[in-house]
Amino acid sequence: MRTELPSGTPVELARPAGEAAGGLVVAPDIGGLRPLFDDLCARLAEENRWVVAAPEPFAGQADMPVDQRLAAAGGLDDARVLGDLRAAADLTGVERVGIVGFCMGGMYALKASGTGRFAAAVAFYGMIRVPEQWRGPAQGEPLEALGRPGRCPVLAIIGGHDHWTPPGDVDALRQVPGVEVVVYPDAEHGFAHDASRPSHRPDDAADAWGRAVAFLGGALG
Fold first, then answer.
1. Any idea what DSSP says for residue 191?
2. Alpha carbons 119 and 113: distance in angstroms, whole number
3. Measured distance CA(20)–CA(162) in Å, rounded
4. CB 166 within 8 A of CB 127
5. 198, 218 in Cβ contact below 8 A?
6. Which residues on neighbouring strands pair with residue 54, listed in sequence order?
7. How far is CA 186 from CA 1, 49, 183, 221, in A?
8. How far apart are CA 3 and CA 144, in angstroms?
9. 171-203 burial, b if ≥16 CB within 10 A, otherwise e?
10. How many angstroms separate the first and last alpha carbons of the chain?
11. Which of 41, 54, 89, 104 could link 14 by a cystine bridge, Cβ 3.0 to 4.6 Å?
């Protein structure tokens, strides 16, 4: 079901049949809300009895094509994006809420882990440092957020051939206490959440999803 946050940002909301076992915010990739994420929210809600909410990262620009989104990512304001992710958590109406993000959304899942709002965070190939072309005055560094007091447990899922998460960044992430890093050596960026991508790896994706759901389920009870 498509609705809006108090900010006016579009959000997809999916509820399970019966009593909810927890809440989950999904931070989409740079392509934003589309049928892929509508279906993902519905599946996660049905299979895990979670209330799932996924906000559009580019508020007011939902129809912007991906090439323009890539160019505009440096203008995103962390305060607004993280505010929408927290509002999406509130929208679930559930006390304990996790967050999972993909690509740019994975970067924001890492940042959101330091807000104190989430019980656990999973980042699928999220940028560990803000890419140079996306740096701007309103963009904070994920590693700084991961160092904040009260940061929730984090699972980072990485592809070994992903140029968005270079080895030096992965090494830095491994040094952060309370962060579990799982690297799939032969995988490239975006290997798990979109079966239509050339980089999709079904076996690695299945293993990564199993780890992610178990990690979130353990935190959400």
1. -
2. 8
3. 35
4. no
5. no
6. 12
7. 36, 33, 9, 33
8. 32
9. eebeebeebebeebeebbbbbbbbeeeeebbee
10. 25
11. 41
Token duo for residue 210: 């199993």
* Cβ neighbourhood burial of 137 (10 Å; 0-12, 13-18, 19+): exposed
Q: How far apart are CA 76 and CA 139, in angstroms?
A: 7
* Residue 76: strand, helix, or coil: coil
> Do the Cβ atoms of 31 and 73 come closer than 8 Å?
no
Query: β-strands 10-14, 50-55: how paired?
Result: antiparallel
Read off the pTM: 0.96
Instruction: Look up the CATH number of domain 2-220.
Output: 3.40.50.1820
Output the tens digit of pLDDT for each of the chain's 221 residues.
999 999 999 999 999 999 999 999 999 999 999 999 999 999 999 999 999 999 999 987 778 888 899 888 888 999 999 999 999 999 999 999 999 999 999 999 999 999 999 999 999 999 999 999 999 899 999 999 999 999 999 999 999 999 999 999 999 999 999 999 999 999 999 999 999 999 999 999 999 999 999 999 999 97
CA 109 and chain centroid, separation: 4
